[in-house]
Specification:
228 residues; Undecaprenyl pyrophosphate synthetase; binds 3-methylbut-3-enyl trihydrogen diphosphate; alpha/beta; binds magnesium ion; 43% helix; single chain
Length: 228
């Protein structure tokens, strides 16, 4: 199994931040930044998959992002409606399996149908995973898992983790946040316990495979002690 033993992270989480500022700097509407951001996903993820990463989780829309101006939320939902299927088709063609993390009930039925179709279409459990976090919040995930695990009786690490959206995915070895902010913004809070954190000022639409490879090199040089 490919693993962190060779200095390759098993699972990378990417906080794709900075679309709005990318657009503002070009005097474009924020929605143009989101469009540029979506275009950037496949090239960057392809580099991660070629490098041998088993799973990439992309933070695409947080539970808190719903509180943005209605225009922007509508534009984001429309972008998901139009681009999710073509984008995932491309990723699946590159050998990946696409999964989702989050509470999709917020999205309109047609968008949920698209998500369900995508999940039903790719069943290759041996493939590398591209996990898209949509309407995802770490606190919501933890509360939900606790409630679900409590229904089954005693809560152990195993029963609890089996109720997380990331159940079955490898350890989150690495988190990359673009856009300059140094915070997790409710991303994979439980899973981030021993993740190596990387922050870059590059805005997400400008981030590329070359920069990712540089961060992966840095990852391979870090000493992970896990408290020992
Ligand atoms: C990240 O870019 C994308 C989403 C949150 C959907 P932002 O929209 O947060 O961009 P900035 O941080 O305002 O530049
Ligand atoms: C985090 O970015 C969420 C995504 C990238 C989807 P935000 O822009 O929402 O985070 P804050 O508001 O700066 O913490
Ligand atoms: Mg932001």
């Amino acid at each position: 199994m490919r693993s962190d033993a060779q200095g390759i992270p098993r699972h990378i989480g990417i906080i794709m931040d900075g679309n709005g500022r990318w657009a503002q700097r070009r005097l474009l509407p924020r929605s143009a930044g989101h469009r540029a951001g979506v275009k950037n996903i496949t090239p960057v993820v392809t580099v991660a998959l070629e490098y041998g990463v088993q799973c990439v989780t992309l933070y695409a829309f947080s539970t808190e992002n719903k509180n943005r101006a209605k225009d922007e939320v509508d534009a984001l939902i429309d972008l998901i409606r139009k681009r999710l299927k073509p984008m995932t088709r491309e990723l699946i063609a590159r050998g990946a399996r696409v999964a989702f993390s989050g509470d999709s009930s917020y999205f309109p039925q047609d968008v949920r149908d698209i998500m369900e179709e995508i999940v039903a279409e790719n069943t290759d459990t041996t493939a590398q995973v591209v996990n898209i976090a949509l309407d995802y919040g770490g606190r919501e995930e933890i509360l939900r898992a606790a409630r679900e695990a409590a229904k089954d009786g005693e809560i152990t690490a195993e029963t609890f983790e089996s109720k997380l959206y990331t159940a079955g995915l490898p350890e989150l070895d690495m988190i990359v946040r673009t856009g300059g902010e140094k915070r997790l913004s409710n991303f994979l809070l439980y899973q981030a316990a021993y993740s190596e954190l990387f922050f870059t000022d590059t805005l997400w639409p400008d981030f590329n495979g070359e920069e990712l490879i540089a961060l992966l090199n840095e990852f391979s040089k870090r000493t992970r002690r896990f408290g020992k």
